[in-house]
Amino acid sequence: MRLRSRRTSVLLVCAVVLIVAAIPVVGVLAMNGGATPSGRGGARAPSAAPAGAATGGGPAAPRGTPFTALGPGGLRIHAWATPARPGAPTLVVINGGPGLSHAAAPPAGVLAPQFRVVAYDQRGTGLSRAPENTAFDLPDQVGDLEALRRRLGVARIDLLGHSWGGLIAAAYAASFPRHVGALVLADGEPIDPAAASRGTGLLMRRIGTLTAHGVIPAQVPSPSGDDCTAGLNALAPAYVANPRLSVAPMPPHTCSETVSTLTANAQTPSLLRTVASALHHYRGPALVIFGGEDPFRPAFEPADVAELAAARLRVTVLPHAGHMAWLESPRFWPDIRRFLAGAQ
């Protein structure tokens, strides 16, 4: 995201994306043993919805075993891994944001035990503490992922990045292509700040329309201290194709206003150009999957595809689904499962 324009786009995209990302709370909490993460993470924006509230939600995810890894600067990253068959590939799920805990992640535990599914709290969110030196840029986020891979003791990991999480996943593939088995960008935010800004504009237009129709309140709740979860929950209808869909709210303290802002401000133009250039050399398997009615899609999808020009790329668009496509499309998880299985 670009200094000022990127910052605005990241915050709104996160707000919007975060809203979207937050929808899978029910399924993800099941993966986390049913416990709500402590009040720390999040991002600035509005959103929320239950993973099983719609056709694409799927069954509750299996509970995971907690573990930690030490990221850059010795920062302790908290994560959870589902049980899996011996030799099963490891799939790391990266939720949207920035500033949201893993309570906002897609409920990918439904892919176990065929895959060992790992979810984690990004730095400064959930149980993962914030760095004292405000190190929130992409190299630090990528370093946290690499720390998780090493802690898991595997040579390669598959990555599923949703929204802002797609940006982190792409940055990891750019930095450690040999350690990536397969890359999935689900409604992923592109590296290109101009595309991210256009996507934000499309989202704001949808929010305006839904506000005019009384679906979204004219006065979105402001953050309560550092907790921006209520605002995200209020914006949730903008992230789904059917704005009348009943979406379960994210629990309090899923979203951190401070972490969202610091993370957005850390992504400088020069850093993003470096990541984009490196990503052009990623030649592994990649899936770009979007809800057909995701408000970000007209801006995000072409940029995602262009940034993965060298990859063995597959693009899937799911009709009648929004930014959190798993809530509305029964094809979301089966399509991802087939792609990952074919990439092994």
Write the layout of secondary structure elements.
Blueprint: H1 3-22, H2 25-31, E1 65-70, E2 76-81, E3 90-94, E4 116-120, H3 138-152, E5 157-162, H4 164-175, E6 180-186, H5 193-212, H6 229-235, H7 257-266, H8 269-279, E7 285-291, H9 297-307, E8 312-318, H10 332-343
Parallel strand pairs: 3-4, 3-5, 5-6, 6-7, 7-8
Antiparallel strand pairs: 1-2, 2-4
Helix pairs in contact: 1-5, 1-6, 1-7, 3-4, 4-8, 5-9
Low-confidence stretches: 1-62
Radius of gyration: 17 Å
Strand content: 5-15%
Q: Tell me the distance between the termini.
A: 32 Å
**Mind summarizing the main beta sheet?**
8 strands, mixed
Q: Going across the biggest sheet, name each strand in turn.
A: 1-2-4-3-5-6-7-8
Mean pLDDT: 85
What global shape is seen?
globular
Structural class: alpha/beta
Helix content: 25-40%
Number of helical segments with 4 or more residues:
10
Tally of extended strands?
8
Structure notes:
With 344 residues, the chain is of the alpha/beta class. 36% of the residues lie in helices and 14% in strands. The protein has helices spanning 3-22, 25-31, 138-152, 164-175, 193-212, 229-235, 257-266, 269-279, 297-307, 332-343, and strands at 65-70, 76-81, 90-94, 116-120, 157-162, 180-186, 285-291, 312-318. Helix 1 crosses helix 5 (193-212), helix 3 (138-152) crosses helix 4 (164-175) and helix 5 runs antiparallel to helix 9. The longest helix has 20 residues, at 3-22. It is globular. The chain starts with a helix and ends with a helix. Mean pLDDT is 85; it is low at 1-62.
